[in-house]
Amino acid sequence: MDVLAVLNLGEFAQIFSKMGMFPVFDLAYYIVSILYLKYEPGSVEVSRRSPVASWLCAMLYCFGSYILADVMLGGCPIDYFQHNSHILLASAVWYLIFYCPLNLFYKCVAFLPVKLVLVALKEVVRTRKIAAGVHHAHHAYHHGFFIMIIMGYVKGSGVALMSNFEQLLRGIWRPDTNEILNMSFPTKASLYGAILFTLQEAQWLPVAKSTLILAFTLFMATSKVVMTARHSHGSPFALIESWVCYVLFGSALAGSEEDHHHPPAVPATPVKTKEELGEGARRRKVKKAE
Amino acid sequence: MDVLAVLNLGEFAQIFSKMGMFPVFDLAYYIVSILYLKYEPGSVEVSRRSPVASWLCAMLYCFGSYILADVMLGGCPIDYFQHNSHILLASAVWYLIFYCPLNLFYKCVAFLPVKLVLVALKEVVRTRKIAAGVHHAHHAYHHGFFIMIIMGYVKGSGVALMSNFEQLLRGIWRPDTNEILNMSFPTKASLYGAILFTLQEAQWLPVAKSTLILAFTLFMATSKVVMTARHSHGSPFALIESWVCYVLFGSALAGSEEDHHHPPAVPATPVKTKEELGEGARRRKVKKAE
Amino acid sequence: MDVLAVLNLGEFAQIFSKMGMFPVFDLAYYIVSILYLKYEPGSVEVSRRSPVASWLCAMLYCFGSYILADVMLGGCPIDYFQHNSHILLASAVWYLIFYCPLNLFYKCVAFLPVKLVLVALKEVVRTRKIAAGVHHAHHAYHHGFFIMIIMGYVKGSGVALMSNFEQLLRGIWRPDTNEILNMSFPTKASLYGAILFTLQEAQWLPVAKSTLILAFTLFMATSKVVMTARHSHGSPFALIESWVCYVLFGSALAGSEEDHHHPPAVPATPVKTKEELGEGARRRKVKKAE
């Protein structure tokens, strides 16, 4: 990390990794998450039919990673709901996005330049969650490397890993697709990030944690901003993944693009995950739903 | 609460709120719960094919609220199964309702006058569970108002909140319906009750807890007895709910009656929940199943 | 147990019941479990499309009983993943069975004589798990006989009890079948074993625990080896079960063979569970899948 030393970035990384997330970054996280919920087909109708179900889904989108992490460590799944201010903030965002007159709030935050900033801020929170998840697991299980990876993965992916059950809450059931079978970019990145942070925690990666947080945040924010701006859903990992998969598993790739030439036994519904749909398609859907 | 003071009801409420539930009230709770299980289409066949699955469903109907509450607080989900006498009593009720020669026990408890008494007794238990749930959550999280509401809600609603998974145990899967999307009267009342008891616990409601328990029990018992007697499934909350929903969410109502004019994206199957089906329809179903 | 005393088997039982399971017996357990995973339709495709999903399924097959038992007692579900050597061994087996060049490893372990030995070793582990589950529950709940039975059952049955959710991970959803509705031989035997060990733990069965472990292991190993060798899926319990069910529940039997003359409300798909399919059918399926 000599380069960083030369640029005197070490201190900046240190400050950056200690920065509080509440309320600015968390607010961005809630807005982007509930925006993705509104993009989901049928979610607007659910918000009309049953505000309770809609609110619960919104809470899962915002706090799914905490719930899952608490479940994984055998804690109280609704433990995070003791933070009344976080819940109230997320509830306010949910209310504004779904019920604001003239759909004003939604139009503001879905405006591309605003959204790009929010998306970047969300990735800051995601990275911090992965690091915290790995650290927490390391505290509980000093040599439980698999547990550390799982906890980081779960904290980074959040609601995506339980999307089947979140959909069930809205009356939708799509068993042929789940986030583990068709990993989207953020889920994959969370997995790789969790592995990196675990290596760092186990001191097999000669990098300071604050530096790793800074670097990973920059990578995630850049990737997501570029992908959102270009309405793309290609993964930056595609090339290296296809090579590793070919060497290790003898298959072209676990990704969706290279999947066409496999005779799929499991019906390979190319259901794009919520974070991979182009903006255009999304807007049309949401407009139609209203 | 001057009226109560004048009528000298305060002391009565105190005594009522300390009254033991086991075995009389609990017995009524088990009988009514397993009666509703027998009303479920297919449950009689399951009791013939797999007594183990049928017994497990019966236990979920009787102890679902304890299981869910333990899950929510990160405890041992089968903790309540240490009370052997409760389990044995519920198992005896299950055996008598499903396998009694000539269906004698079922005919006795499903006889309307008997059933009305049992339904009233069941609501006594439900109210106590809501109060206990809120109190327990308050003990664990002093300012966790959301947790208190969730715990009271879960304790009052019981198996209804996990009906999808209870049905799965019997080989049935109806993703388009769940208790959160289409709340039945007891579930809604549990939610409102949980909010009331939370307000009381937070001392924002100037009422003694025992008085609230008495009043809520009276309301619940009266409502359920009237609804059962009239085979009705209208909700006493319909009017105020439609007004609140109109003001807050701009929609007519989250209820089913006013739902027709929405173009439903989620297939709005008007599946009546078990507690809302008229008696006539129920009896016919059960008879046919036998 | 005079016979055992005469044969001087008591000491042998003692030694047998203290014998370490890692690595030989555990290795056999992992191999047979992941073999059954490969027999599942679609699992080979999943291993090509998403190695992560395939690995997770393999872990559920190997450690499902620990995960479920931890969930049941309110512990950390991924607690067992702290044993890195066990996870690595199971992962190596998974890799060799699914990705070994020329399918060499699979062919070796699926070769009938080898497989019979492995199956017998697996049953040794299963019996030990049941005994450990009951013992653990007895430690936590001294008089919780139902909890002891449930824990032994869960430890013995493992992934079978959550097969619906394991299938969901692979994109398959078969709600009309679950292990409780259609219990396979190992699941039934685990239930009966859990009851026996609970009776022993409660000292209602005048047998030393080590003797019971030895006897139950012999019964399980013999039954499974014979059933695997003869490609049979009849249950040795069928006769006594049909008699008990007739007396207690007035039905012929909860088993599948005698089930035909019931008009099934729940679509009685005679889906053979993985452990009951004849070898021939399995091999054909797996070959086709490749």
Fill in the keyword field for this structure:
290 residues; 0% strand; globular
DSSP strand (E) fraction of chain A? under 5%
Number of strands of chain A: 0
> Percent helix among the residues of chain A?
55-70%
Q: What would you call the quaternary organization? A: homotrimer
The major β-sheet of chain A equals: none
Taking pLDDT < 50 over at least 5 consecutive residues as the criterion, the unreliable ranges of chain A are: 252-281, 283-290
Care to describe what's here?
Chain A is mostly helical. Chain A has one domain (2-261, 270-289). In chain A, 67% of the residues lie in helices and 0% in strands. Chain A contains 14 helices and no strands. Chain A has helices at residues 2-6, 9-18, 24-39, 43-49, 51-72, 84-99, 104-110, 112-140, 145-157, 163-169, 185-201, 209-229, 238-249, 279-289. Mean pLDDT of chain A is 87; it is low at 252-281 and 283-290. Chains in contact: A-B, A-C, B-C. The interface between B and C is large, with 34 and 37 residues.
